[in-house]
Each structure stands twice: as C-alpha cells, then as structure tokens.
C-alpha cells in the first residue's frame, strides 16, 4: 500500500510568525496533494481544517493572518471563548469534540459546523436550540471505528439505524461521517479504521442518509493515510501550530506515550 511521503509527520516545529504559518500550511497542503495523487485523487478534493486547541489567541491571530478562515476546537468552552474574543476576525468555528447536551445552546449560538454527533440526545438538544435561533448546522456523525472504549462515537453496527432517525431534526444538515483512528504507529491498523468509515459511508450513501457523503478523518500523525483512503476533511493541529506541551493522553483518554500524535 502507499506510504506517506517524507516530511508529512512529526517533529512539529512551533509556528511563531505569519511566515511560519504560511510555510506550515503550504507543507501540509503539499502532503495532502501528494497523498491524493498516489491514489488518483486531487488535493482540491480535501478540505484542511486547522485545529487550534490549546493555542494562545495571539497565535491564532497569526494563523488567521496567514489565511486560516475556519478553525476546529475540541472543547466547546474554549471555542466559545475564542469566538467572543476574536469576533472581529473573519473566522468560523468547527466543534470537533464530544458534546455534552448542556453545551448545545453554545454550539447552536456560534458554531458553523459540528463534527462529533453520536447520540439522539445531542441531536435533539442541538435541533431545539437551532430551531429557536432560526438557523441550521452542518454536522458529521462520529463513528467509533477502533472499538476502543476510551473513544466516543457510535458503534458501526448502530450507524444506519441512527442515520435513519436524523431527518426528524430539521435544523441538522448531515454532511457525512467522522472518526478517530486507533492511536498506533501501525499504519495498517490505522488504515483499517479509515476503510471501515468509507465502507459505512458507502452504505449510508446508497440509502440517501449521509448528505454529500463527506469523510472527516485523519489528523497530524495520519492524514496522509486518511487522504489515501478517501478523506474529504482532515483535522490538523500540531503539524500547523507546533507540538503541544501536554501529552496526547490529556486530550484523548487511553492514549499512551509513544503512540502517534493527535491533531
């Protein structure tokens, strides 16, 4: 199978200037294009979603100056704070982490996209808040393709039944599926998670349940593999902003030292 090209993985130097961000964006986009070309795709088919979790607001401003217009955040409270403090910037927010229903009001108020829908309780709470606000929201349904208890997401065998119930929530616009692959340096195990999501998307597409049929998969340590397996969105943080001071297990329960990097 194809391998990721050199220069598309760790180490991740910190971006401290607009020029640094421009260079990192160019490097990541080049890696996306190379991965796409290896399987007969084009880089234009893949949306790069920069992930700014833990990044100070002054550095987010640099990223925006370098051309970033949508940023992903795992935690609703962080995204809400940044949305308020950076409101003068031409910036929209994608919430990519698990949603507690008591945060649905916040997501409905400011998010342009939600990529971690995995329960009818969350769908109902979001829809109610969105209907009250008179707006809709693009959503991706999260699937647990690694079968790890530490990860959120629907079990694969529950996905189709879940998708069939979503049309009752009229404010939610299903765009496709999202997953976090297993955290390991074993590329073939990672690839199997992405292949599973693509297969599930294909099933949902046949039934008209996944909208455009997007696949949000791949992060800093594995986005090349994800693109090879059909990703239409890759969520990249460290490869753009630089390595985080906190270990991956702080963000992703169950991750141990030495495993591949989170977004």
Describe what this molecule looks like in 3D.
The chain has 263 residues and is an alpha/beta fold. The protein has helices at residues 18-38, 57-65, 76-85, 104-110, 120-133, 159-165, 187-206, 223-228, 238-241, and strands spanning 47-50, 70-73, 92-95, 113-117, 137-142, 172-178, 214-216, 233-236. The protein has a single domain (18-242), classed as Alanine racemase (TIM Barrel, Alpha-Beta Barrel). Helices cover 37% and strands 14% of the residues. It has a 6-stranded parallel beta sheet. Helix 4 (104-110) packs across helix 5. GO terms for molecular function: pyridoxal phosphate binding. Belongs to the pyridoxal phosphate-binding protein YggS/PROSC family.
CATH superfamily: Alanine racemase
> What about the largest sheet?
6 strands, parallel
Number of helical regions: 9
Number of domains: 1
Keywords: Pyridoxal phosphate
Function: Pyridoxal 5'-phosphate (PLP)-binding protein, which is involved in PLP homeostasis.
Pfam families: Ala_racemase_N
Organism: Streptomyces capillispiralis
Characterize this entry briefly.
The protein has one domain (18-242): TIM Barrel. Helices cover 37% and strands 14% of the residues. The chain has 9 helices and 8 strands.
Short key terms for the protein model shown above:
two-stranded parallel sheet, six-stranded parallel beta sheet, 263 residues, disordered C terminus, disordered N terminus, alpha/beta, globular, TIM Barrel
